Structure formats: structure tokens, C-alpha cells
Amino acid sequence: MKQIPKTELSPTNGCIIDTKWTLGPLSYHASAAGKVKAEPSKEIIRLPEIVLYDHAGFGGAYARTNLSFHYVGDFWNDRISCLIVVSGIWRFYRDEYYKGPSWDLGPGYYESFFAEKGPDDVVSSFEAIALT
Q1: I need a labelling partner for 56 at 20 to 30 A (CA). Which of 33, 108, 118, 132 fits?
Q2: Start-to-end C-alpha separation, the chain
Q3: Which residue range forms the structural domain that includes residue 76?
């Protein structure tokens, strides 16, 4: 079994693959090597996505994901100091399995995102709750 670094957010570190988002019509292709020309969708749909950082000011270890985590893993637990919400609305929880006090954040740069809402380095789980 491949060893996953503790700094990597992965299914072995508590990832939940979210299938609740509706992406609109998709076409089926038996192979990507076909020469069938596909018309691009005119509808713009952005899946939720965030970038997490270990230190305030967007420093230290970082991870980019569009998945919800019921537990962020031993490395990231109570260690997330700032983040970028690329798209979507995300709910961050103090405790694992989406429990305890929570904070909702929409698109933007959060250089020290708990300064106004509570103490730093307290996130144990997070989930995407809406598209933007």
C-alpha cells in the first residue's frame, strides 16, 4: 500500500467524496481517444474548491481540494491557519465528523480567517455546503 504523506489530504486521511453537486448534462464516451467532436457546454459550473495553509499569511504546508473531510488528518488537525476559498461556500467545524461550533466562508482570501470569528488553528473537519 502506498504511503500517503501526512501533509496530503487524501481518502486515507478522512476524505468524503461529495456527489451532491449537479453538473448539468454530460455526454458518455467509451474512450477519450475517439475523434468525435464534442460541443463545449455554455453553462458555467464551478465545483467548490479551497486551498488550505499551515501558517497565517499563506505560508507553510498547503493543500488544494474540492472534497469534504470528516477529519482532516493528524497533520492538519487544529493546524489550518489561513485559506483561499476559490469557489463554493464551505463550513469549517471545530470537531471531527462535522460537530462543534462552525464557521461559513465564501469565495475570498482569508489571511488569518479565525481572527474575527474565534481562535486560530481549531479546524478538525470541513464540508462544501453550496455552489457559488
Answers
A1: 132
A2: 37
A3: 45-130
